[in-house]
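Last lecture ended with a question: if I hand you only a sequence, what can you say about the shape of the protein? Today we answer it with a concrete record. The protein is Aminotransferase class V domain-containing protein. Below, first the input exactly as provided, then the predicted structure, then a couple of comments.
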Amino acid sequence: MPKPLNIAQEVRPHFPAVTDDFIFGDNAGGSQILRESVDAISDYLLTSNVQMGGGYMHSVEAAKRVEKGKEAAAVLTNVEGGPSQIVIGSSTTQLASNLGHACALAGKTHGLFELNDEIIISAAEHEANVGPWVRLAKELNLTIKYWLPSPLPNSESPFAIGLNPADLEPLLSANTRLVAFTAVSNLLGHRTPVKDVVEIVKSKTGARAMTVVDCVAYAPHGHINMQEWGCDAVLFSFYKLFGPHLSCLALAPWSPLATKSHSLGHYFHPQAVSYKLAPGGAPYELQVGCYPILPYLLSLGDGEGGTASEKQLAIAFERIRVHERLLSERMLAYLLSKEAKVKGVQVVGPHSSEDRVPTISFVVVERASQHGNRVIYKKRMTSKDVVSKFDEGQKIGIKYGHFYSTKVMPCLPLDTSIIPDNLVFDKSNAWQPVAEDDGVVRISLVHYNTLEEVDEIIEHIRNVLSEL
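The predicted structure:
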């Protein structure tokens, strides 16, 4: 059992914005930034803010410092091939779009995709890992299939849904060329067994299908390990992992996504992925600010810092997970209580802290109708109204909505939900559900949050529900 995190001494001193005056409960939208990242950005701008590629000392130093951002990303993802397999861009949406566009161009010239190929997309995705593949399928006349969230075992609630690998298997075939799925749903909070999914995909497709894993909602809570998982690509956002507003795409060097994707950069640039998939690059100073994330996490791995080892990261994230499990258990204990249930509270996603991260969503509903064995619910109190009550006090920051996971909402038993009978689309006549803007109430915590803060959030929810 790892040593418990000392939040007051080991964690909070690194986050100047995190104080006792305000509770940050919208961390899945963007975490607070490390003091060390801000210092690194400032120091770069003040001491080495020059163009790279020159032989003079300031330019040489600038290049070294910028490269360290990619070095950190390579360790954080454990990508084979190191920094050369890292692409840094402004957002995961932008990087995934670049990758999809590069694949579309390659499909026409390099045979990356062929006639009759199929793409499977999880319906638990943020749109960032959906739209690029839908556009690709449309351009190359491919087939889209959706892997839907389904009821989780050991739960009677129809709102307790998540991705089940058993539901993926029937969708796979010799024609499957790419599977895009999330390591953690940013709305459900459910942990997907990534390694198991990748193994199933390889087994069922003869290792022909590529796997693209969205780790944005996973990265603050768990260790991304590409070499252990065996996936082709992962995406994550530094700004949700305690750094500046940049994101990362890591590509395995053996993947066709790395070797066959078409360059989007200048024709005279190298064909390395960091050039061909990030035309124009990312702001130098922000890349420099990404590096301090690594030594900070390593310091949680052995208490002192030290070398960039997978073992240290594993220990750090296990310590984080133990603490976050306590946060989840405290929050779930109230939201699943009889007191909350009689008010209409339904937790969306796993009801067990073992199967989730502390990104916890809920709705306030009542029965509306019944269709066969399926009970349909309607909002008793809108998610917007719940969050508005929080905003009135200006002491706790949470949000409501679909959080760009528009295909999750129709999978819930709400009177606004509609799922087509057939979720296989030729020529990319893809499923575009109407976004239900009211969505869910989402409370998203990370390791710098405390049990005392959870208690305050619970008390606010209790006060809001008292009006019903």
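Comments.
1. The mean pLDDT is 94.
2. The first strand starts at residue 23 and ends at 24.
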